[in-house]
Each structure stands twice: as C-alpha cells, then as structure tokens.
Amino acid sequence: MNTGLDESSYRSLFLLDSFPSAVIDMATDEIREVNQAFEELMSLTSAELRGRRFDEVMEQTMEWTRARGKDGPELEVESSEAAPWKLVRLRRAATQEHERRADKLSSMAVMAAGISHDFNNALMAALPWADLLRRKHQEDASIQTATEHIRNAIFRARDITSLLLDFAQPAKPKRARQDLVSLVREQSIRAPATSPGIAIHFHSPTEAILVDVDKGQIGKVVEHLLRNALEAIASTGTIHIRVSRLDPKKRTENGLPQDREFGVIEVSDDGKGMSPEMLEHAFDPFFTTKDVRSGTGLGLSIVFRIIEEHGGTVRAESQVGSGTTIRVFLPTLRIPERPVVSDPGALHILLVDDEVPIVEGIQASLELNGVHVTAAGSGEEALGLLRNGLRPDGIVLDLGLPGMRGNEVHALIRAIDATVPIIISSGWTSGAEAVDLLTDGRTRLLQKPYDPEEILVELKKF
Predict the structure, then answer these.
(1) Per-residue exposure over 21-59, b if at least 16 CB sit within 10 Å of its own CB, e if not
(2) What percentage of the chain carries pLDDT values higher than 70?
C-alpha cells in the first residue's frame, strides 16, 4: 500500500513511534495500517483491525473497558492528512510533565535509530581491517592479542547501540546462536564495581551450552542479577555464578516441559535474604527492598520479562539472613555447531555498498579465502552489472543505499534472477525494514557490524 509517506517517515511513525498510530482511508474511514503500539492498546492484531472503521474500533474499545469495571482510556487524537490517507496518533490524556517525557522518549527513539545506523556502519568499516591484520600476522602473538581486543571492542560497541535503541523503544529479542557459558563469563568479567570484601566466583562446564538468545538482553539479565546480589551484601560476602545443563530429573520440580533441554544461569549470594512475603513480590514491577532513592524496583521484573520472551522461566529461593539464589532456565539448541568454512572454492560475490572502507575491507578479507568480489557502489550500478550478464554465486546488499533503496534493488534483482542467494546487511539495529524481504527463502540478514567470513557461512545455508 502506498500511504504517501517516505521510508524515513514510515520508520519513525510505525517502527519506532511509542504512540499508537494508524493510517486511515479518508474516503471510507477504514483502517489501512497500524503500528505495534496501536495493536497493544486495542488488544487486536493488525489483521483484525485492517478494513474496520476507525470510529467503530474506538467505541468498541471504550465499551469493552467499561464493561469490565474499568475507566475507559481518555485518549487524545492527533491527525495529519496527505490525501487519500490520514495519519492518526493516539495518546492517553496526561499531565503536561508526563506528555513532555513521552514526547522526549519518542524523539529519542528516532534519534537512537539514526545514531545506531551510522555508528554500526563506522564499526563495519573497522572490523574487516582488524580481521585482515589478524590473518596476515598469525605468527605474531602481540598482534593477535591486539586485534582480538579490537574485535571484542567492536562487537561490544555493537551491543551498546542495540541497547541504546532498546532503551528508547523496547524490541522483541534479536536472537542468534550463543554459547551460554562464554556469554555469562564475559558479562561476569564486566560486573559492577565491588567492594574489597565481596568475592565473585564463576563456575561452568568445559563444553559449550548452545542457546538461541539475544546476546545483549541476556547480558542485561546477568547484569541485573549481579547488581541485586551485590546490593544484598552489606560489606563482606560471596557471590557464586554458575552455568550448567539442567538435570532432566529436575524439569518437573521447576515446572519445565519434559521434551526440552535447558541451560541454567544461577546467581547466589550470602546477603541479607528475603522473607517469604518479600520473595512473593520479587518479580513485580517497582517492588524493591531498597530505599526508593537507591533503586527502581525494575531489575528483576526486567529479568523475568526477557527470559519469558526467550521461552524460559525464572525461579528464586531466599531466606532471611542466609542469602538468595536466583535461577534462570533457557531452552538449549539441538542443532550441531556452525560449520567452519575451510575451502570456499572459486566463489564469486557481488558486494553492493556505498561505504568505500567497508567495501575495501570486506573485499580484502574475502580475497584471502580465494573469493572473487565484484563491488558496486549503488543499486543502479549493481543492476547494470546483472543486466549485462554478471551471474555471481551470491549478493551482499546494503539496505541503506543512496538513491534507489536496498529493498527496491532487492525486488529488481529478483526480477532478473529469482534464485540467486542474497544476503542483506543493515546498520539499523531493529532490522525491521528487512523483515518482508526474508520471506522468499533465498534471502538472509546480516546485522552490521559482522565478520566478513560470516558471509561465507551464510551462503553455505542456502
């Protein structure tokens, strides 16, 4: 549907806007499109809302809330028109201060997305060169150590940009396969500052425990659990962090299904502990055992929400004077380790990106593997090459191209070659603009920044 909105406006209003928004047909008053916030407000899906009259939906919502003894939401309606469409934004009537904060958060979401895109592109320009340096000096231990630190810093920065966007606009988990042991160990090393009297011990098996998780969000879980444990200890004490596989015999007592295997993150402390009454409310939003000036009471509720979204659960044990133990259960993967690319053969890849440092870095890195890379700085150039007979084994396509956008280029490539593998890359942390492109079964997504060899790994999956 052509709403008359350009891509940046659509992204701001529908993918990032924290206020419920809808596009209305001015001639019929029918709803044509809604964002996620609108769905949540109305407790209806976009499919259930499309085609219905806007005024009827609003009245039904008011009646539904009143029938349940609730006050109907006092909503203020903002609209702007660009025939034949009308854009409607809803907001609950609020105090001036509340409204100011909500507007500020919405603006931050748009700004955060833009910053994330540009910052991820900058990181992508640096990563291939670090990889190239590492591979050309494999006998030099000091260079190997230095480049590993650089790569770790780049990936850490990528996680920060993701958290920046999540702060302004909470998003669904962006999952990828991770080793739970390495993930928790890495986060434990970055534990909040501790007093000299508090010792932290990490325990884990030697083998990897594979899980399908959002690395940034699970890192946030570990951070919150550690912070709670540290705050529970007055001045001296011990914290134990354990990562393990759940014994199948213990699934039932933890309320877990019998047909799945689980990894466990356990954080225990010997601090002040909680009474049964306090433990009952430990995961409630805004519940805190600390002074209201020193805690928000959101830490454990955030942990619970994140783990629930990942298909897991959380359990807590505590006793006054004996400390607290919190266990997080996450489903583990049954798939084998990701294949190692040893011999890519005479692959030919068309790389479409307007950022010269990114193109040159990826090209140099892949050519060390014997891959032939043809570069195109725009969608128009890439399409010209394909129309003139270029037939690569795969295409890496940046979505944020100048001129013709990546999604348009994708559609025109498919008109030329319906089966060529396409890896779309994006610096937008949400990746939401890529979702519709992944439905053809021959397109995959790589979020910037990525290791150039991930291109070869992804091509092997087609």
Answers:
(1) bbbbbeeeebbbbbbbbbbebbebeeeebeeeebeebbe
(2) 72
Strand partners, 258: none
The edge-to-edge listing of strands for the beta sheet with 348-352 is 372-376, 348-352, 394-398, 422-426, 443-447
- HSE-CB of 308 using CA atoms within 13 angstroms: 8
pTM for this entry: 0.41
Please enumerate in sequence order all residues whose Cβ is within 8 A of that of 3, keeping only pairs 6 or more positions apart, or say none: 10, 23, 32, 33, 82, 85, 87
Tokens of 168: 């302004």
Q: What is the pLDDT of residues 386-402, one digit of tens each?
A: 999 999 999 999 988 88
Tell me if residue 105 falls in helix, strand or coil: helix
Distances (CA, A) of 227 to 222, 292, 299: 8, 16, 9
Longest CA–CA span in the chain (Å) reads 76
- Percentages (nearest 5) of helix, strand, coil residues in the chain: 45, 20, 35
Closest by CA position to 7, among listed 372, 351, 315, 436: 436
Residue 234: name the closest of 187, 302, 276, 289 by CA.
289
Residue at 77: amino acid letter: V
Convert the pLDDT of each residue in 223-273 to its tens digit. Answer: 888 888 888 887 889 999 999 999 998 988 888 888 789 999 999 999 888
pLDDT score at 198: 86
Instruction: Give me the pLDDT at residue 442, please.
Output: 87
Strand partners, 202: 241
Helix (H, G, I), strand (E, B) or coil at 316: strand
Strand-pair partners of 426: 447
CB count in 10 Å sphere of residue 192? 10
Going by pLDDT thresholds of 50, 70 and 90, the confidence category of residue 1 is very low
Helix (H, G, I), strand (E, B) or coil at 22: strand
Q: How many CA atoms lie within 13 A of 434 on its CB side?
A: 22
DSSP letter, residue 234: S
Token pair 């934004």: residue: 89
Residue for token pair 């609209």: 79
Give the model's confidence band at 382: pLDDT under 50 very low, under 70 low, under 90 confident, else very high. very high
The CA distance from 238 to 198, in Å, is: 6
What is the Rg, in whole angstroms, of the alpha carbon atoms belonging to the chain?
25
The Cβ-side half-sphere exposure at 37, using a 13 Å CA radius, reads 19
Residues whose CB falls within 8 Å of the CB of residue 58, separated by 6 or more in sequence, listed in order: 75
